[in-house]
Specification:
With 82 residues, the protein is α+β, with helices and mostly antiparallel strands. The protein is 46% helix and 15% strand. The chain is built from five helices and four strands; from the N terminus they run E-E-H-H-H-E-H-H-E. The termini are far apart.
Length: 82
């Protein structure tokens, strides 16, 4: 499991870009994404809203397959600027 610690202060941050990818691919809701990937709407909503604490490899793989992208297109490392 890859940790998504997007609420951490004074540390490196991993952010997901699911909302950006959905916008670029004109995916307007989770219904199609759930149907095509098998990822539950609850999991998709957590990722979309940056509320998840992690993402497993199967979820990451399913999203990469659906969007035709690499993990780095979904996850972004943002170093702390302190």
């Amino acid at each position: 499991m890859i940790e998504l610690n997007n609420k951490c202060v004074g540390d490196h941050v991993i952010r997901n870009k699911l909302s950006v990818l959905m916008g670029e691919h004109k995916v307007k809701n989770f219904v199609l994404l759930e149907k095509e990937t098998g990822i539950t709407r609850k999991t998709l909503a957590k990722l979309y809203n940056d509320e998840g604490k992690g993402i497993d490899y199967a979820t990451l793989d399913a999203l990469c397959t659906f969007f035709g992208c690499q993990p780095g297109d979904i996850l972004e490392h943002v170093p702390d600027e302190d």
